[in-house]
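From the thread on structure requests for the teaching lab: each student submitted one protein with a one-line request. Submission from student K.M.:

"Model RecA family profile 1 domain-containing protein from Petrolisthes cinctipes, tokens only."
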Amino acid sequence: MSSIAANTWTRNILDRLDINPKVKCRAQKAGYVSAIRILGASQGELQHKLELSEFHIKNLTAAVASYALPKQETAWEMATQSEAKTHLTTGCPCLDVFLSGGVAVGGVTEVSGQSGSGKTQFGLQLALYAQLPRSLGGIAKGVAYICTESQFPVVRLQQMIGHMKLKYPQGPKSYTDNIFVHHVPDMDCLVDCVRYQLPALVSRRNVGLVVVDSVAAAFRVEEDSGEMNRSIPLQAMGYRLHHLAASYGLVVVTLNQVTAAMGTVSLYGIRGDVTPALGLSWANLITTRLMMTRTASYRPATHGKMQSRHHGPHISGKNVVEFNSAGSFRKLLAAEYNVRLLEVVFCPWLGRKSCAFIVCEEGVKGVDMEEIYRSSSVISNG
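Reply posted by the TA:
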């Protein structure tokens, strides 16, 4: 055994492990600090000496084994790595072209916006298309959907599934069997979920997409504890999401709320009166930031001309298809759809640009941006 390998087994490795701090403290106090000492002991001995449960001991030994004996990449894996899928389709050809292929595999993609802008609709659509075979733009994998602020929109999901089955009869028999929903009430539970429960789910259930809806809700509850106390777990969660995305080739999408902005230009040049929540500490942890906003334009359900709600002929608000922030669906007469904008705020491979879309019964669909400009011009001149 080389001196480097021997050092890996005999030195103190506790600070290098991503495990519960309580477990680290107990192991340090009992003198179980090296890989050879921990892995050389029986589970019963560790439970007795460290006074921990079987669950914590298994997490400890698994973390030590992964550190001391990292997985080796085979020649086959190296040869096929270049063939791996790089994007997950959004479910809309227009949005896929706009995003140069869809939502990227690896890294963390944030979608921010006001309540009712379409964030949850987008997350649900990704959760369905991720299960499609690669030939249809999917990744043929399961979905981990983490909810932090409201009940999971089951009714709306079932409606979208109905359209998916008609459009893709070759898709999975049951979409819901491959969506694993987990509710977390606060910041600590969210961080623990990402650090401990999510890795186990990804490895055991072939998960390829992770959606956090929303990342801000759990951390806003902790605002009274101070910015510094909040930034530490926020960074830990961000680093862990990046690690999982890189290690397993995941698509990670975090939905974020917005807050009022002081002045006309906010963080990263976003103009207007709102800015994504959690500030610079979170912005530095994401790879891509997309922002959704509602406009004053409406598209008739018959795909006719768009018109402004403020300048066009009066149409009762009861004739509009509406989706609330929780994703529940309310259909009255389905006369028109509100036009929204999807903006690339920053992305390593995309420039700053915008794309128009609507939220209809089927889900999120891109619409012609030039048509909006033409409609706006006609309205302003008329």
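TA comment: The two ends are 83 Å apart (CA to CA). Confidence is low (pLDDT under 50) at residues 264-269, 310-334, 374-382.
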